[in-house]
């Protein structure tokens, strides 16, 4: 991979016996709908890895807002309930804030496992998965929040010799309030993660160096329509009709190109999502990817690839 200043990158290491220049035995496999596949591909929505920076950033964002809410609620309670001890509303609000901050890793984990993008994916499975994960996380979040502030308030009431703190049967009431907090935190975590990924995203290279024998072909990324496996080589399908070969494995090329819109649609094919002009079902869950005059197989074993290629943009 290179930008306008870099000289290029070495080719990946092939395995097995060399094919000479590989041109005499080239096979045109475009359009073949083969039903094998090996590795799942991330597409459509992105399930990013956990990053503790998102949790720390959320704490820093939410803490000052929480401090303001604590003050407003405590003063409001003192005004509305003049019969209570002056310290009580402060204990209620501070204990609730501490417990909810300690429970915040729950929506953070749930957002990483099932980001809001997943609910917008086609099909019912992603939507059901999204709902189940966040429903379980909401119940866990609310349970931790309630258990936490009950323990803290019990300790505070004992220290103030004010008798035992009684929570009663108000869990459903607290759950309704926690639903709003939970949804807000999921949105915050999703936005923080999105902005962080945009900030950390490397500058997109403008070209890729293809080592075709002794030659180096510097191809613009948008001009690489697809890449297919050809024995010990990979074959680049370029927009101008050229099909240079490079001694490398398709897996090595996938590592280089998957960040830039190339999708593993088949164990032997990578396709440039930006060049897709159509998708045609072939039966039994397999598809054909239309890339202008070029056609590539999309195996049913790569459902994420189908989601990615069917989603606009």
Structural account:
The structure is a single chain. With 313 residues, this protein is α+β, with helices and mostly antiparallel strands. The chain folds into two domains: 52-200, no CATH class; 207-310, OB fold (Dihydrolipoamide Acetyltransferase, E2P), CATH 2.40.50. Helix content is 44%, strand content 17%. The chain is built from eight helices and ten strands. The protein has helices at 52-80, 88-102, 105-113, 116-119, 124-159, 171-200, 250-257, 303-310; strands spanning 207-212, 215-220, 224-230, 233-238, 245-247, 262-266, 269-272, 278-283, 286-291, 294-298. The strands form three sheets. Strands 5-4-3-7-6 form a five-stranded antiparallel β-sheet, with helices on both faces. It has a three-stranded antiparallel β-sheet with strand order 8-9-10, with helices on one face. Strand 4 (233-238) and strand 5 form a beta hairpin. Helix 3 runs antiparallel to helix 5. The relative contact order is 0.18. Residues 2-46 have low confidence and may be disordered.
């Amino acid at each position: 991979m290179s930008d306008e200043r870099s000289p290029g990158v070495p080719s990946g290491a092939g395995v097995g016996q060399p094919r000479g220049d590989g041109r005499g035995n080239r096979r045109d496999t475009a359009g073949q709908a083969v039903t094998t596949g090996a590795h799942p591909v991330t597409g459509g929505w992105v399930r990013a890895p956990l990053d503790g920076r998102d949790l720390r950033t959320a704490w820093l964002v939410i803490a000052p807002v929480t401090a303001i809410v604590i003050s407003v609620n405590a003063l409001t309670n003192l005004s509305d309930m003049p019969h209570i001890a002056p310290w009580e509303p402060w204990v209620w609000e501070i204990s609730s804030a501490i417990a909810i901050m300690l429970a915040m890793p729950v929506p953070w984990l749930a957002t990483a496992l099932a980001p809001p993008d997943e609910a917008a994916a086609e099909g019912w499975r992603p939507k059901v998965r999204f709902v189940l994960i966040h429903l379980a996380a909401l119940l866990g979040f609310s349970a931790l929040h309630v258990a936490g502030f009950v323990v803290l308030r019990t300790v505070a009431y004992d220290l103030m010799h004010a008798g035992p703190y009684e929570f009663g049967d108000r869990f459903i009431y607290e759950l309704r309030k926690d639903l709003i907090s939970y949804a807000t935190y999921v949105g915050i975590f999703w936005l923080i993660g999105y902005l962080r990924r945009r900030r950390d995203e490397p500058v997109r290279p403008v070209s890729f160096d293809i080592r075709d024998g002794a030659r180096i072909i510097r191809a613009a990324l948008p001009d690489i329509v697809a890449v297919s496996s050809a024995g010990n080589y990979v074959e680049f399908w370029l927009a101008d009709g050229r099909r240079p070969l490079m001694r490398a494995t398709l897996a090595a090329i996938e590592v280089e190109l998957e960040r830039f819109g190339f999708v593993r649609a088949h164990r032997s094919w990578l396709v440039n999502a930006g060049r897709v002009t159509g998708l045609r079902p072939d039966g039994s869950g397999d598809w054909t990817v239309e890339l202008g005059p070029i056609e590539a197989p999309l195996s049913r074993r790569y459902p994420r690839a189908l989601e990615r290629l069917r989603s606009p943009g």
